[in-house]
């Protein structure tokens, strides 16, 4: 191997320095000018390293451009998302937020730092409570809570916050997303006020109904008594039509008295303390037969039932249901002798009872009105009073429903359900 003279050595050193400094590329011609194979290998190695370095430099520039573009894209997306978003540090200090957050809280662009406690005053307490529940373990946590929000101008709004942790190796970060629900909150507040007002009005109305009903009983009793005295003393002559008028007064006064008692029952039936226990429905029907004994005998009524179940209910309320239904059927029997059959079916979640008669015809247009407390006393030749509205009110207390089916010449079927989850 020949030795380089000083001049060649200096030229080689200059070439290597230029190559390392990136001033001169290594070419095949450059390598060919070198006589010594050992130094040729050195230049070939330098050429490979130079090409790798150039490639890596280009790759790095490309990656830097991509990262820069990606960062710009993320910033653009973050700023243009139409939802208020804020990034918090471990001390719950707001480090950055998007334009929607700035607009929502009316933050001036000149403000360098926003105090989160002034715009979301309850966040820190909620976060601390949540921290206590999690016992300090905040990895992958998410907090969703309804919260009060205050703009920098003092306007109060309401929102749902969604706060979650951001996994970083060296520090804790949180992202806070806000959904405004102010309109829903205000509507909820308004409905609550209306509901409270409605409850109050209903209580006042029920109290007024009780007082009025009680006060009317005495004058009705006096009218009935005086009419009976007139009937006994002065109108023995069968040709005098006044006797019929007095009979009508007596009959009407009795009916008004019965109606007042039903109204009183309707307003208080579910307010009384109930005793929910196992009740044998067969015994309830037997008690109804005793209570309505006179009405049953006068109208030749036959009541059939077999193996009725034992259910959980208040026995007095259950008695009211069956007594009112059976009494209603008897009073609207028409010209036939009523035959009433009581049946039942059992389901997983409720009982369904059927009270079937053999001839009463109810107009289908009147099916829904029949159970309303607003129906008239005599509608479509059906004497409804308030008794069926009482049934409906009790049955709804037991999470049930009541309805009727009716066919000319066949009769009517009253259905009602009683929930087992009482």
Written account of the structure:
This protein is an alpha+beta fold. It has four domains: 6-78; 81-180, 2-Layer Sandwich (Beta-Lactamase); 190-268; 273-422, Histidine kinase-like ATPase, C-terminal domain (Heat Shock Protein 90, 2-Layer Sandwich). The protein is 50% helix and 19% strand. It has twelve helices and 14 strands. The chain has helices spanning 6-20, 28-32, 37-80, 99-104, 116-119, 123-134, 182-233, 242-268, 281-291, 293-298, 315-331, 387-397; strands at residues 85-88, 94-97, 142-150, 156-166, 173-180, 277-280, 302-305, 310-313, 339-346, 350-356, 378-379, 382-383, 402-407, 411-419. The strands form four sheets. The chain has a five-stranded antiparallel sheet, with helices on both faces. Strands 7-9-10-14-13 form a five-stranded mixed sheet. A two-stranded antiparallel ribbon has the order 6-8. It is elongated, with a radius of gyration of 46 Å. The relative contact order is 0.05. The model is unreliable at 376-383 (pLDDT under 50).
